[in-house]
Design goal:
Order of helices and strands: HEHEHEEHEEHHEHEEEHEH
Structural class: alpha/beta
Mean pLDDT: 80
Number of helices: 9
Number of strands: 11
Distance between the termini: 35 Å
Shape: elongated
Largest sheet: 7 strands, mixed
């Protein structure tokens, strides 16, 4: 399937990425950088059997159901078979124990929804949130393909939403990482102001793609999320596994009491005066409210939440959250 057939777009036509041979990987990603996570991504898994320390297990966390099962046959019960597999109706008719045998489906579609809006183009320590989100998505994408599952995605900025239907193997991975790289490189501090893309519109598109038995991973700071966002996530979660990766910047929790906080995209800077009580209170309130909202979804809908910060390298965070050893 060619790229034109595999990607549908909503909104304005995407602007071309700036032409340059040099990128600061803390601010913008490159395709080779995202491709470089291939080997390390094997340290995690999105299959049903999770390590005990994985964020996908435990209290207030959803267990990943994994691939579906295809019925294969009925056969006589053999010593060692799971008694839960006995078909009691057939057993009663036949007068001998029979079990139902299933084969795990060969693959399972995964949909990675990645936020690359201007609200994500902010970082004060190591990365911008948009870079951390892109790296998280790339790590997940590599693992999905290596597990033999199908990979699809929705990458959205403020001007464009790009949809990729789930596909198999290296072509699907390359398409996804290329679209993600392009969206990330379009983010510029001097970009013209536009109406922010509504996350709810993106989730409606996700619901149309992930109709049933998908793994849906949403990677975002969840800016402008509201009660409608919760309804959309709840609808998707009825028939799919949903994982939320909440991307944050430590400034929201560790604001200095005096002085200014400076954010940069590598070329331009923005300063927030922390001595101003209203500025300080506003930043803290927004961050706290957003985290509380996502945590409430975790409790109400039993969604899995992976908290990821721009303060540290992305890969060790993901591996630790998934219960693996540090790469």
């Amino acid at each position: 399937m060619n790229r034109r057939a595999s990607i549908s777009r909503m909104g304005l036509a995407p602007a071309a990425a700036p032409s340059t041979d040099s990128w600061d990987l803390r601010v913008h990603v490159t395709l080779p950088h995202l491709q470089g996570f291939r080997a390390a991504a094997r340290a995690i898994s999105f299959l049903p059997r999770q390590p005990a320390r994985s964020a996908l297990q435990g209290r207030h966390r959803a267990r990943i159901r994994g691939r579906g099962l295809d019925f294969e046959e009925l056969r006589n019960y053999l010593p060692g078979d799971d008694v839960r597999a006995i078909d009691w109706k057939v057993t009663a008719r036949a007068g001998a124990p029979y079990v139902r045998v299933y084969n795990e489906e060969r693959d399972r579609p995964t949909l990675i929804v990645v936020d690359q809006r201007m609200s994500m183009f902010f970082g004060t320590v190591r990365n911008t949130k948009s870079v951390t989100a892109a790296e998280t998505a790339a790590i997940v994408a590599h693992r999905v393909i290596s597990q033999g599952d199908r990979l699809g995605g929705i990458v959205f900025g403020d001007q464009c939403v790009e949809e990729l239907r789930p596909g198999r193997g290296a072509p699907a991975l390359t398409r996804f990482l290329s679209v993600l790289t392009h969206a990330n490189q379009r983010l510029r501090a001097d970009a013209a102001k536009v109406q922010p893309m509504a996350m709810n519109a993106v989730l409606r598109a996700a619901a149309k793609l992930a109709t049933r038995d998908h793994l849906v991973i949403v990677i975002s700071d969840f800016d402008a999320a509201d009660a409608e966002t919760e309804r959309h996530l709840g609808a998707i979660a009825q028939h799919n596994d949903v994982v939320l990766a909440l991307v944050t910047d430590p400034t929201a929790e560790k604001l200095p009491e005096q002085g200014a906080v400076t954010g940069t995209d590598g070329q331009q800077q923005a300063r927030l005066d922390m001595a101003a009580a209203d500025v300080r209170a506003g930043v803290l309130s927004v961050a706290a409210d957003r985290t509380e909202l996502v945590e409430s979804w975790q409790r109400k809908m039993k969604l899995s939440v992976l908290p990821v910060t721009t303060e540290h390298e992305t890969l060790p965070q993901i591996v630790s959250l998934m219960g693996g050893a540090r790469p």
